[in-house]
């Protein structure tokens, strides 16, 4: 039965009911009739209209039932609720379209990641809340809090986090993370604030610095470290990241970080339940490598909105330019939008293998940038074949033709068919730096200084 016919029948029934009630009250005295406002026909008409409107709203609600909040329980142990925000709504009343809104929110989220204290970042991206009010993250929330990402092109989302007074951003159905379940002691698949700080610190250690970081941990120089050595150096490492420096011990509503950040399921995974185990170099290096790989996998799953095992050329382009400086981002996004109208990229899909290979290239950016700048200086132009050969021979990374075509399209600053190597390298360098989020002091400042002070290389101006 349609909502309109149901509404009509309900209205007629209510009016008939009211007439019967009104006729039965005619015999009453006029004084009692006037003293009882509910017997007045005007009040009856108001009741009919209000009831009809309520029924009309009910039948036209997208979920066909009332929801007073988005706090529907997700599991029974422990009870979890989605963070509340305004319900979904149609877009007809919005002053700006979703494309514009998504860019505005992306800029907001980018600044939030780079300049806000970790408590505020966690509060924005965390998607779950316990009955006690504690905010928790899913693994994909952690990825979005660390990596700048656009909403998937096939979704209707306009942002990645939660804002009071804004409609629910929607849900992305990413598969559970087997990696994070390895050290999830309560098997809820969620990340607390203190664990978030811990992971952000670990992600600040770039792969090129894995061994150096471990040797710094290994004060006894025996190739292994114990739990206390690990905790002390993690505290030191955290003090050299922006998130760690601004960490206020979770002093915000919904954040519980009373216990040490260095205690939790991860430490138990590395050192055993009794905490007396020893962590070997190879296990530590592999763990951090796996952590970085998991973030790459979660980013791909984010863009793979319909679980097709591939993403569109536009989504891949978004993942590349998302780390660009805000002053250059607008022009790069215009190049991304052009992909939708270019027949060369209409049916192009990027697999996870291609996506991961490009992520590997970012990790080896310094030797790769030296190779392409040196070649361009001698030869004058860098062709697509030269680009692929540099990635393969210098970095051991295989790039597909589709990936190279998208890169050349995005970073063809002069629209002459050639790659703007400076712009390309600058965007990739921003990605690695923003995830590490170093402050210019201590060991991270020293590593950053070493990265920047390559004055003898043709690319030195890029890292200044």
Describe the protein's architecture and organization.
- With 464 residues, this protein is mainly α.
- The protein has three domains: 3-59; 79-307, no CATH class; 313-463, no CATH class.
- Helices cover 53% and strands 5% of the residues.
- The chain has 21 helices and eight strands.
- Strands 1-2-3-4 form a four-stranded antiparallel sheet, with no helix packed on it. A two-stranded antiparallel sheet has the order 5-6.
- β3 (128-130) and β4 (135-136) form a beta hairpin.
- α14 (313-321) packs antiparallel against α15 (326-338), α14 (313-321) packs across α19 and α17 (365-379) crosses α18 (384-395).
- The longest helix is centred in the middle third of the chain and has 23 residues, at 281-303.
- It starts with a helix and ends in a 12-residue tail after the last helix.
Overall pLDDT: 73
Q: Helix share of residues?
A: 40-55%
Count of helical regions: 21
**Count of β-strands:** 8
Global Rg: 29 Å
Reading side by side through the largest sheet, how are the strands ordered? 1-2-3-4
Form type: globular
What is the total domain count? 3
Beta-strand share of residues: under 5%
Ranges with pLDDT <50 over ≥5 residues?
24-39, 52-77, 84-92, 439-464
Tell me the major beta sheet: 4 strands, antiparallel
Q: Summarize the helix and strand pattern as letters.
A: HHHEEHHEEHHHHEHHHEHEHHEHHHHHH
Provide the structure class: mainly alpha
State the distance separating the first and last CA atoms: 68 Å
List keywords for this structure.
mainly alpha; 3 domains; 21 helices; 8 strands; 53% helix; globular; mitochondrion inner membrane; calcium
């Amino acid at each position: 039965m349609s909502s309109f016919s149901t509404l009509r029948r309900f209205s007629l029934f209510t009016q008939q009911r009211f007439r019967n009630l009104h006729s039965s009250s005619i015999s009453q005295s006029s004084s009692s009739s006037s003293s009882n406002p509910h017997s007045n026909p005007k009040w009856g008409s108001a009741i009919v209209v209000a009831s009809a409107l309520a029924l009309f709203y009910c039948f036209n609600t997208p979920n066909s039932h009332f929801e007073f909040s988005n706090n529907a329980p997700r599991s029974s142990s422990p009870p979890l609720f989605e963070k509340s925000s305004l319900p979904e709504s149609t877009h007809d009343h919005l002053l700006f379209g979703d494309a514009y809104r998504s860019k505005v929110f992306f800029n907001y989220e980018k600044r939030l990641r780079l300049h806000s204290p970790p408590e505020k970042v966690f509060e924005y991206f965390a998607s779950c809340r316990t009955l006690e009010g504690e905010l928790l993250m899913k693994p994909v929330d952690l990825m979005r809090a660390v990596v700048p990402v656009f909403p998937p092109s096939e979704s209707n989302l306009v942002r990645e986090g939660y804002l009071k007074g804004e409609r629910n951003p929607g849900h992305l159905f990413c598969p559970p993370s087997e990696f994070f379940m390895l050290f999830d002691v309560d098997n809820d698949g969620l990340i607390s604030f203190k664990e978030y700080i811990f992971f952000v610190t670990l992600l600040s250690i770039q792969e090129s610095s894995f061994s150096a970081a471990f040797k710094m941990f290994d004060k006894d120089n025996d190739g292994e470290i114990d739990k206390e050595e690990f905790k002390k150096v993690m505290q030191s490492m955290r003090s050299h990241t922006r998130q760690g420096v601004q960490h206020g011990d979770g002093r915000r509503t919904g954040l519980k970080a009373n216990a040490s950040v260095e205690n939790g399921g991860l430490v138990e995974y590395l050192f055993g339940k009794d905490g007396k185990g020893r962590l070997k170099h190879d296990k530590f290096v592999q763990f951090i490598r796996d952590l970085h790989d998991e973030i790459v996998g979660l980013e791909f799953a984010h863009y793979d909105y319909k679980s097709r095992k591939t993403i569109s050329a536009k989504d891949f382009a978004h993942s590349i330019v998302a780390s660009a400086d805000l002053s250059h981002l607008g022009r790069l996004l215009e190049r991304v939008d052009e992909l939708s109208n270019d027949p060369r990229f209409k049916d192009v899909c990027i697999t996870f293998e291609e996506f991961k290979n490009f992520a590997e290239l970012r990790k080896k950016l310094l030797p790769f940038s030296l190779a392409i700048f040196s070649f361009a200086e001698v030869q004058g132009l860098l062709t697509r074949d030269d680009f692929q050969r540099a990635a393969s021979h210098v970095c051991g990374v295989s790039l597909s033709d589709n990936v190279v075509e998208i890169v050349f399209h995005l970073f063809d600053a002069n629209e002459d068919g050639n790659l703007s190597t400076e712009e390309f390298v600058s965007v990739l360098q921003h990605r690695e730096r923003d995830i590490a989020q170093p402050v210019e002091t201590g060991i991270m400042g020293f590593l950053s200084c070493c990265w920047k002070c390559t004055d003898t290389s043709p690319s030195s101006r890029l890292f200044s």
